[in-house]
Amino acid sequence: MSGQDDSTPPPPPSPRSGRLRVLMAADTFPPDVNGAANFCERLAVGLTERGHDVHIVAPAPTGTRPGTVLEQHGGVTLTVHRLFSLRWPGHWLRFAWPWTARRNTARILDAFHPDVVHLQSHIVIGRAVTREAIDRGIPVIATNHFMPENVLDQAPLPQWIIPLAIRIAWRDAAKTYRLVDAITAPTRRAAEYLEAAVDVHDVLAVSCGIEASRYTSRDVRPADNEIVFVGRIAAEKQIEVLLRAMTLLDPAIGATLTIVGGGDHVSTIEKLITELGIGDRVTLTGFSSDEVLRAALTNGTVFAMPSTAELQSIASLEAMASGLPIVAADAMALPHLVDGNGYLFRAGDERDMAAKLTAVLTADDEEYLRMKHRSLAMIAPHDIERTLQTFESLYRGEPVADGPDAGR
Predict the structure, then answer these.
(1) For 12-93, where are the E strands, in sequence order?
(2) d(CA 353, CA 328)
(3) How far is CA 26 from the centre of its chain?
């Protein structure tokens, strides 16, 4: 086998019901703040807490040296193999050096002897690990968090070339995804999106999952009308639509907006807030602790998600676990999160968004509490323990059924 040291035979495979050795390959991992990085961390922590041996391969963050290090994540110690990386121009994302990725990951595979490899990205590290794992007969599972629009939005490309670039990006993704043993996506809508984009079949819908018990819902309606958004301040989040919707709300409602998060688009958002004259009604918290995030959701009145590029939207799930009604764009996976617990609005339409926010904020107490309780009921299929159990079964080659989507 390619790169195998014959003098060091691999250990015997783990029993089907026992401890697993799992290698996760990720092009983004904390301290990066985004959905893919957060999911990889939660999954690794949860599997470790269940007794499995989990290693991560990820880019070395800015200011740190490459190498294998023990890192604290979520109260557990993870072995993280950090590879030399370069920063994406104009963005905080970093990617491993493509020309050395296979050589570096081959050494990691030969030292660790994983039972299974789980890709969180196909771009550089995932591509390298897949090919090296296949050479060694190691099963490979992939989870797709990728939408090329989210990456190309940061690229200095003219708009006319974006559709071609998207097609090229998906053709590149197909070269890896068609090699793996199983593919998952966070929702059925995201699974169907991937199947059509790369011409694969049987993509499983497996929720990224959240630890719902960590979020608190108030039993009563808040006294104030506070709209909350949680997420990266990035172009694809369409926060401008939400800000313009704020200007269309009746002042008598007394609505305020709290935006929890930071990102490369902050200066643009700050400028627009000033131009719209709503600085007295909008609070930008910047990157915040989990405690600040959870408090904002607990104290909020309604959660707003204007993004059109969500494969699941963990932030929306967190809001639902906090008992908030949801107002979300009718785009990608968001429709699965709205079913009697709020409203969908036409994507990009600030007038429709303002109307749907008004419907929640002016609902009578009985209707408001009904939406609140519906959000809490819908979060059950997305408990992290169910997600962990599903991936354990996938790793062992056991049959797995499609997970239920919220809203179905």
Answers:
(1) 21-25, 53-59, 67-73, 76-83, 85-87
(2) 8
(3) 12
| Beta strands, E only, 138-201 | 140-143, 182-185
Per residue in 162-193, pLDDT (tens digit) is 678 788 888 999 999 999 999 999 888 889 98
What strand order describes the sheet that includes 326-329?
Answer: 282-286, 255-260, 225-230, 302-305, 326-329, 342-345
Nearest of 318, 292, 310 to residue 383 by alpha carbon: 318
Q: Is the preceding omega at residue 31 within 30 degrees of 0, hence cis?
A: yes
Which conformational region is residue 192 in: left (phi greater than 0), alpha (psi within -120 to 50 degrees), or beta?
alpha
- Distance, in Å, from the CA atom of 344 to the CA atom of 290, rounded to the nearest integer, reads 27
Distance CA(303)–CA(301), nearest Å, equals 7
**Cβ count near 11 (within 10 Å):** 10
CB atoms within 10 A of CB 164: 10
CA angle 293, 294, 298 (to 5 degrees): 120
Q: Evaluate if residue 3 carries a pLDDT over 50.
A: no
Going from the C-alpha of 140 to that of each of 55, 83, 97, 126, 143, the distances in angstroms are 14, 20, 22, 10, 10
Residue 7 pLDDT greater than 60, yes or no = no
Nearest to 383 by CA among 231, 215, 232: 215
Query: Sign of the CA dihedral 81, 82, 85, 89?
Result: positive
Instruction: Please give the residue that has the higher pLDDT: either 406 or 368.
Output: 368
Mean pLDDT confidence for 330-356? 93
pLDDT, tens only, 134-170: 999 999 999 998 887 666 555 566 666 767 878 888 8
Task: Return d(Cα 278, Cα 22) in angstroms, integer.
Answer: 49
Cβ count within 10 A of residue 401: 10
What tokens does 370 get? 């009904």
Bridge partner list, 79: 55, 70
Q: pTM of this prediction?
A: 0.79
Which structure tokens are listed for 167?
A: 């097609």
Write out pLDDT tens, residues 194-203. 999 999 999 9
Q: What is the pLDDT of residues 63-92, one digit of tens each?
A: 889 999 999 998 999 999 999 988 776 666
Are residues 293 and 317 in contact, defined by beta-carbon separation less than 8 angstroms? no
Partners of 73 in beta bridges: 76
